[in-house]
């Protein structure tokens, strides 16, 4: 048995792991849900796109860049009123999901857009020549052709979310990172800090391997 | 010859002087393009005229080739036929209907009747061969059962029935292009557009794909419009050809006529690449020098028609008292018609050589003087 792992600490560990998982999964789900249409919109309205429109593309791009360039810890505090509006409260794991989702939506939208840009323009042209509508091109050509890139983007986002979620302690979001700071750093328990880091490393490794395996499975090239 | 003079004439007006016998009446034309213009804004505000007043008629059932160097505008032109590219002005009549007047839904419907094959195949890598071929049917809302029948039918046409479950990455270039053709044919179009369909393939596969396109034209009564930068492709399968340069059609006609009697210098250069004679300078250097008072001239003689079998060389030699040295010669076929091509060195008095070339021309042979590298060097030295 591990001597310092008291029943209380053990319970805290389990709770923190569940909080981290909740925040990462919740934020990633929302990010994919909103990021995919945003990325398609960005891609389609881009110059030479299916529905070229600078009036949509430029403000949208600016907004996404603004969210992405705001340091997460500041973003989290800055949007407290919005968080309260959405989650009903500004503290706790649920509330932490709101800024995490916002930051990762902007992040994943750019990554998805890049994945769409990698799709051969000739394939899109061929689909147009075959009489496909723009929506058909988005869902039947762009999304399936970009799928390996989209999955890779989700993997990268999940990994960054694990890192961001450590900052959620600032708004009482809990999680493994918070546990590491409170016990490992503030209570001088380096073994707790080390355990947290090891668990996070294993967690990220697992995510990355799963993502890579999925990419290999869907890639037909 | 620029055809822009025909301007925006109404469709029935014949607009080209070339090969009147073969020029189809506009009423029969599967594709009739009138005075197409398209420019692209270039760097520094300089606009490039990709299409500068192009008019063309493609008759139903023919294989029509458009040949030109890259940047000549042929790619823009073929994209105007299904309006992947919209011309700034002009008319695009396909199967008797003006496509520029159609709204989005009607245009998509017409596009399904115009198959298109691409240089880089443009297959969906995430779909199997069968699902690629089924794609145009799927977007048109054809029910699954019907789709499967048509996919099988289209794959059988191109000889790939056994590859239905494969992914494009598992196929060779030639097989990928066969899938591309099957996909274009699945909606049973009347027209097939080929955008440099063989340019990414090796010579042997190119021959296979060209033979396939020709066979499908005969079998399905298709009208084929193809663009290429290779005169060899035109020579192989086209009935008629248009040569493009700087956004204009500079020559149009039956392939045999254009090959045997090219009128525009650009066309001549194109043909020289394919069937022309290249006389190595080393060979010329080894030719004997002309005797005093005589001259040496290099000639290229093209034999076509009734006199191609006559013993003209020895006859000319006797008649005009000159020596004709055959440097090279070959027999070839264009669009199924035979012709001969010969490179000669003529030695004799200048007047006699002139008389000989005149007599050759009388017989219906095409004589083209070839620059004598040795003579040029001498002239430069003098």
From TrEMBL, chain A:
Pfam family, any one: BPD_transp_1
Any GO BP annotation: D-methionine transmembrane transport
Cellular-component GO terms for this entry: plasma membrane
Membrane topology qualifier: Multi-pass membrane protein
UniProt-listed InterPro entries: AA_ABC_Transporter_Permease, MetI-like, MetI-like_sf
Keyword annotations: Cell membrane, Membrane, Transmembrane, Transmembrane helix, Transport
Cell wall biogenesis/degradation found in the keyword field: no
Residue ranges occupied by any ABC transmembrane type-1 domain in the UniProt entry: 17-211
Compartment list: Cell membrane
Segments traversing the membrane: 20-42, 62-83, 89-112, 150-172, 192-215
Keyword Membrane (UniProt): yes
Primary residence: membrane
Domain of life: Bacteria
Family assignment from sequence similarity: Belongs to the binding-protein-dependent transport system permease family. CysTW subfamily.
Xref: PANTHER family: ABC TRANSPORTER PERMEASE, D-METHIONINE TRANSPORT SYSTEM PERMEASE PROTEIN METI-RELATED
Name the record gives this protein: DL-methionine transporter permease subunit
Organism field: Teichococcus rhizosphaerae
Automatic annotation (TrEMBL), chain B:
Domain ABC transporter positions: 31-271
InterPro entries named in the record: AAA+_ATPase, ABC_transporter-like_ATP-bd, ABC_transporter-like_CS, ACT-like_dom_sf, MetN_ABC, MetN_ABC_transporter-like, NIL_domain, P-loop_NTPase
SUPFAM superfamilies, alphabetized: ACT-like, P-loop containing nucleoside triphosphate hydrolases
GO biological processes: amino acid transport
GO molecular function: ATP binding; ATP hydrolysis activity
Keywords: Amino-acid transport, ATP-binding, Cell membrane, Membrane, Nucleotide-binding, Translocase, Transport
Gene3D superfamilies in the cross-refs: 3.30.70.260, P-loop containing nucleotide triphosphate hydrolases
CDD domains linked: ABC_MetN_methionine_transporter
Protein name according to UniProt: Phosphate ABC transporter ATP-binding protein
Organism: Teichococcus rhizosphaerae
């Amino acid at each position: 048995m591990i001597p310092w792992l008291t029943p209380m600490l053990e319970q805290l560990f389990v709770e923190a792991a569940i909080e981290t998982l909740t925040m990462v999964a919740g934020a990633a789900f929302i990010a994919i849900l909103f990021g995919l249409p945003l990325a398609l919109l960005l891609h389609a309205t881009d110059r030479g796109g299916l529905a070229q429109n600078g009036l949509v593309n430029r403000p949208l791009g600016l907004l996404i860049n603004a969210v992405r360039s705001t340091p997460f810890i500041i973003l989290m505090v800055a949007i407290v009123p919005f968080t309260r509006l959405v989650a009903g409260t500004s503290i706790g794991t649920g509330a932490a999901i709101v800024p995490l989702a916002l930051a990762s939506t902007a992040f994943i939208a750019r990554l998805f857009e890049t994945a769409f840009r990698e799709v051969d323009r000739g394939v899109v042209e061929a689909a147009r020549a075959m009489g496909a509508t723009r929506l058909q091109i988005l869902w039947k050509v762009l999304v399936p052709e970009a799928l390996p890139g989209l999955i890779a983007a989700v993997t990268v986002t999940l990994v960054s979310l694990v890192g961001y979620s450590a900052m959620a302690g600032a708004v009482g979001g809990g999680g493994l990172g918070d546990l590491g700071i409170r016990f490992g750093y503030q209570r001088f328990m380096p073994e707790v800090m080390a355990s947290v880091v090891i668990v996070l490393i294993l967690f990220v490794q697992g995510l990355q391997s799963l993502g890579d395996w999925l990419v290999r499975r869907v890639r037909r090239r | 010859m620029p055809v822009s003079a025909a301007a925006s004439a109404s469709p029935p007006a014949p607009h080209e002087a070339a090969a009147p016998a073969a020029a189809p009446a506009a009423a029969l034309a599967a594709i009739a393009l009138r005075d197409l213009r398209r420019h692209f804004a270039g760097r520094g505000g300089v606009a490039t005229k990709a299409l500068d007043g192009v008019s063309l008629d493609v008759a139903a059932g023919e294989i029509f080739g458009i040949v030109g160097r890259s940047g000549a505008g042929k790619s823009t032109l073929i994209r105007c036929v299904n309006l992947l590219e919209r011309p700034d002005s002009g008319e695009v009549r396909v199967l008797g209907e003006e496509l520029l007047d159609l709204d989005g839904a009607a245009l998509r419907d017409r596009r399904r009747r115009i198959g298109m094959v691409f240089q880089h195949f443009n297959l969906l890598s995430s779909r199997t061969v069968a699902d690629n071929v089924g794609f145009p049917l799927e977007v048109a809302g054809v029910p699954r059962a019907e789709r499967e029948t048509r996919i099988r039918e289209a794959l059988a046409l191109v000889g790939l029935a056994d590859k239905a479950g494969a992914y494009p990455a598992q196929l060779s270039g030639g097989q990928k292009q066969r899938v591309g053709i099957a996909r274009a044919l699945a909606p049973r179009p009347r027209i097939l557009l080929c955008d440099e369909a063989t340019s990414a393939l090796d010579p042997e596969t190119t021959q296979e794909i060209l033979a396939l396109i020709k066979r499908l034209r005969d079998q399905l009564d298709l009208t084929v419009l193809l663009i290429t930068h290779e005169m060899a492709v035109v020579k192989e399968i086209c009935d008629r050809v248009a040569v493009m340069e700087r956004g204009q059609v500079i020559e149009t006609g039956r392939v045999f006529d254009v090959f045997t009697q090219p009128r525009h210098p650009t066309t001549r250069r194109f043909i020289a690449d394919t069937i022309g004679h290249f006389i190595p300078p080393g060979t010329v250097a080894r030719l004997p020098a002309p005797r005093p008072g005589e001259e040496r001239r290099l000639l290229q003689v093209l034999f076509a028609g009734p006199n191609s079998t006559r013993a003209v060389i020895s006859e000319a030699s006797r008649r005009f008292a000159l020596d004709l040295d055959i440097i090279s010669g070959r027999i070839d076929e264009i669009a199924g018609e035979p012709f001969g091509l010969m490179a000669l060195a003529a030695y004799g008095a200048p007047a006699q050589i002139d008389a000989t070339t005149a007599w050759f021309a009388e017989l219906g042979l095409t004589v083209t003087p070839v620059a004598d590298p040795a003579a040029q060097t001498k002239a430069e030295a003098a």
